[in-house]
């Protein structure tokens, strides 16, 4: 317990000491310089809350039982940038009138493995254009603006809380994620999604 408190205190101190540096926490709690930013202790604390929320969903069946049962996309990848994996949605969060709530991610992302199992890699928050038009200012979460995803008619923001992303915790594509084992369910996007 003391070690965990000391680690938390150290992380908070480092976050403040970084000032304008762009910092992020990797899944193992190590500070990295690879992500646009959450440089405040409050945001780091919120990311920790999100990690606790999704911890049970590393087990795909637990995610389905909790309501993320609707497969929204095939396994999505972008050559040269990485992949997102499969998107599984919780319908009641998707059709909630455009609410943005850190602890209510609309989508959970899963990477397929050779043995047929799915590995939890992150979350995506979406706001349909029917709730916030493409002509409006983007929604924001943790100081990050959502990107337009016109082919799906939504605003979207990823947070890679299941698998470290060298491109940044909020980047749309993760080069460590692959659709190689998705078989016929893999789709190459052919666009830059938020880039």
Description:
This protein is of the alpha+beta class. The protein has one domain. The protein contains 4 helices and 11 strands. The chain has helices at residues 2-17, 41-54, 60-65, 91-94, and strands at residues 24-25, 31-32, 70-78, 82-89, 107-112, 118-128, 140-141, 144-145, 147-149, 154-159, 186-188. The strands form 3 sheets. It has a 7-stranded mixed β-sheet with strand order 9-10-6-5-4-3-11. It has a two-stranded antiparallel sheet with strand order 1-2. A hairpin with a 4-residue loop joins β9 (147-149) and β10.
The separation of the N and C termini measures 42 Å
Assembly category = single chain
* Overall average pLDDT: 81
Put simply, the count of helices is 4
Strand % is 25-35%
Low-confidence stretches: 1-39, 190-195
User: How many domains make up the 3D coordinates?
Assistant: 1
Helix-strand category: alpha+beta
Radius of gyration: 17 Å
Q: In which order are the strands of the major sheet placed?
A: 9-10-6-5-4-3-11
In sequence order, what are the helices and strands, one letter per element?
A: HEEHHEEHEEEEEEE
Q: In which range does the helix fraction lie?
A: 10-25%
**How many runs of DSSP E, i.e. beta strands?**
11
What overall geometry do the principal axes of the alpha carbons give?
globular
Q: Summarize the main sheet.
A: 7 strands, mixed
